[in-house]
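user: can you give me the structure for this one chain? tokens are fine.
assistant: on it. calling the predictor now.
[tool input]
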Amino acid sequence: MCTTVEYLQRLLNVTSEERMVFGDGYNDIELMSCGTYSFTVRNAVQEINDAANYMTRSNEEDAVLRQLFISYLYSKGKEQVKI
């Protein structure tokens, strides 16, 4: 699985320090080890919660989109963001 993530990283010119992965189900357990920043959504299965570095909102609250937006703003120096 990490081979695919690394391929996409090269294709999109993303550094490993910028790599983020998101998961919510059993099929994402291996994926959690592929990202510098691994996120689980609040309503994920417990095994994913245990494997991820961070937890964000539920997928019913547009968790991935919100986290990407927050991370983008943070990278631009806007650290006090509430969404």
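assistant: here you go. The radius of gyration is 13 Å. Helices lie at 2-11, 46-51, 63-75.
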